[in-house]
Amino acid sequence: MTTAPDQATIDQIVSYIDRREDAFVERLRKLVDTNSGLDNPDGRLDCLAQMDRFYRLLGFTTERLERPGEMVHLVARRAPTGSAAANAPKVMLLGHLDTVFDSTSGFLSFQRAGEWATGPGVGDMKGGLVVLQAALEALAHVRRLDDFDWLAVHNADEEIQSPTSRELIERCAIDRELALDFEVGRASGALVRSRAGVGRYFVQVHGRAAHSGMHHADGANAIVALAAIVAELADLTDYDRGTTINVGTITGGSKRNIVPEEARCEVDVRIRDSAEAERVDVAVKAICAREHVPGTSAEVVGGIGRPPWRPFAGSEYLARLFVETGTALGIEVTAEDTGGGSDANFTAAMGIPTIDGLGPIGEEVHTDRERIQLWSVAERAKLVACSLLGWTPPPVAEA
Ligand SMILES: [Zn+2]
Description:
It is a single chain. The protein is α+β, with helices and mostly antiparallel strands. The protein folds into two domains: 7-196 and 309-398, 3-Layer(aba) Sandwich (Aminopeptidase); 197-306, 2-Layer Sandwich (Alpha-Beta Plaits). Helix content is 34%, strand content 24%. It has ten helices and 18 strands. Strand 17 and strand 18 (371-373) form a beta hairpin. The two termini are 15 Å apart. The model has no long low-confidence stretch (mean pLDDT 96). Zinc ion (ZN) binds at residues 96, 124-125, 158, 183, 342.
């Protein structure tokens, strides 16, 4: 358990972060200017190294974990010391290193324009990484870093749904009391207190090619079969339950006068609860297993990669702490539900009080207009540092 921060401590945190603001912006510039897209393992490693150095300076021990696909993740730990050690809150910090911008994209650098900063990953989520750094530094400055048991995971594959880091995050989260994810804040300024679950499916239909004029009856039309599958998949959408199925891409065939041998589509699924996750997963597989056109067959890969994060008492409690701390600091902040998934879904699904959207306030992420309100980096850092100092375990009824 920590001791709630007194006003002098809060003032020191606030003035420390204000004084260091330019340094934080420079750090953000460097992270953003280091491309860390899917096609750029060296860039991701460079971002990882920047985080690694930061943690070591604060006395964390760090470990690099290599995974297939040239994915390297960073785990940083710091044990509590002194009299507070026995009851030190076990905090998990989450922040991915990758962005959706490949090294070949035309959007590669940090730009500042008044209150705004733009750049690839400036919101999602290098801005969040700098918020995290600023908050930890401020806690070190007021000599309260030792009050906590820290564990941070920085993965390199979040933008592709964390296939090589999910198990690591879940293993690291097992003994954690609370989890903080530093994804970009909502454009409204709100934090995130729940997220939809997210699934992805790839459907590939195999048919039989034949000349459309001479041998049409010998063919098995993969596009016609896929069209039937797509219609049935689309019908799984149920707005009342918050379930959406989006067939987002479709390709197939080779020539107008050839019965198409292949057709494929990609499907995005959003669900609000685990019963829906199960219903949709079973239905998608059943639809693809049936023969829609004689002589065709479909293969489906994928699944629900991120479990839904439903609001629950523990995460509501944590969200309330942040909102109340904000009020005390004169920072107006709310917490919202959102349809996008993140790594916070994993910790929340394990029942760990989780909050997300702690990164700066931003908009149009994943586009070449991605931008943040630059001042909100410092504001979020103050909010995080002071909220953590106010953490006490939830009453049993809310745990
Ligand atoms: Zn992100």
